[in-house]
Amino acid sequence: MISSFQHLSLSVPDVAAGRDFYRDFGMQPVDRGDSVAMRCVGRDQDQVVLFEGPRREVHHRTYGVLPGTLADTRRGLERAGVELLDAPVQHGGEGVWLRDPHGYVVHLTERADAGSAGDARIAWNTPGHFERLGDRGCPTPQLPTRPRRLGHIIVFSPDPDALARFYIEHLGMRLSDRVGDGFAVFLRTQGDSDHHVLGLLRNPQRGLHHASFEVGSLDEMQLGMLRMQDAGHRHAWGLGRHVVGSNYFQYFRDPYGSMAEYFVDIDHIPADQDWEARDWGKDGMFLWSVDGPPPEDFAHNYYADEG
Ligand SMILES: [Fe+2]
């Protein structure tokens, strides 16, 4: 029963380009010879691992399961006839490896998640609530943009509803919301969870749409945006606010045609909350963005463009 998202592995034709991109994005590379792991500063956990490969594809994703549930989860998958794979030695040789109905490789592990270190509370002055008294609120231009954790990814699927059912029935994920009558489906984990940890977006082919990282504040997000643009990376969309998940967003195209997102202030749902999943029609995507609706190619699957 999935309780955390640990890391995403991509197979890509140019590892160095992704290493540069994510370093400029605020992350730290760990070079391992056959791969580069990008980590959040001060957090001892891989987040995006890049392997050299002939074409860009989602290599696998690693999720933590609730302690003591791995064996039961494996038995449930076997009973359901799900394809289980040998645990690859190069990836630690442990845990349960499976192929989901749309061909994505998923790794389940009981290894502990690094968790979230947490920052000092941000004091905001709002009408009638002056939480920051006698202190200047504006940071210096040197405020670093530091992704704190990989919060979620969105991947493409020809049938998001069907794939969501698989993750709900067999891996314990929970439905948070749908957009566009099943065009996109948003799932969270067991336990207290961000509104979405996995999103599924309709497209005939597999591929990564985006990976999303929590940053500490709107200032970090916007200063990061300016630095990414200065470094020559392509801004994709934002600053804006999503409806589904509520987070503020900034998107950039990575070297592979997928995107990396900074997020701030995502909805967080307690485990025992009776959360009502809704279908938001076309209105779930965003409330506003300073650059208007998403760009034409926002939902394009660049991973499907090459053979
Ligand atoms: Fe996102």
Key attributes of the depicted protein:
307 residues, alpha+beta, 2,3-Dihydroxybiphenyl 1,2-Dioxygenase, domain 1, ten-stranded mixed beta sheet, 22 strands, binds fe (ii) ion
Major sheet = 10 strands, mixed
Strand content: 35-45%
Number of folding domains? 1
Q: Find the CATH topology.
A: 2,3-Dihydroxybiphenyl 1,2-Dioxygenase, domain 1
Write the layout of secondary structure elements.
Layout: E1 2-12, H1 15-24, E2 28-31, E3 35-39, E4 46-52, E5 57-65, H2 70-79, E6 83-85, E7 96-99, E8 105-109, E9 125-126, E10 129-130, E11 149-157, H3 160-171, E12 174-179, E13 184-188, E14 193-194, E15 198-202, E16 208-214, H4 218-230, E17 234-241, E18 248-253, E19 259-264, E20 268-269, E21 278-279, E22 288-289
Parallel strand pairs: 1-4, 5-8, 11-15, 12-21, 16-19
Antiparallel strand pairs: 1-5, 2-3, 3-4, 6-7, 7-8, 9-10, 11-16, 12-13, 13-15, 14-20, 17-18, 17-22, 18-19
Fe (ii) ion (FE2) binds near residues 152, 210, 212 and 261.
Could you describe the 3D structure shown?
The chain is α+β, with helices and mostly antiparallel strands and 307 residues long. It has a single domain (2-113, 147-304), classed as 2,3-Dihydroxybiphenyl 1,2-Dioxygenase, domain 1 (Roll). It is built from 4 helices and 22 strands. It has helices at residues 15-24, 70-79, 160-171, 218-230; strands at 2-12, 28-31, 35-39, 46-52, 57-65, 83-85, 96-99, 105-109, 125-126, 129-130, 149-157, 174-179, 184-188, 193-194, 198-202, 208-214, 234-241, 248-253, 259-264, 268-269, 278-279, 288-289. The strands form 4 sheets. A 10-stranded mixed β-sheet has the order 21-12-13-15-11-16-19-18-17-22, covered by helices on one side. It is globular, with a radius of gyration of 19 Å. It binds fe (ii) ion. Fe (ii) ion (FE2) binds next to strand 16.
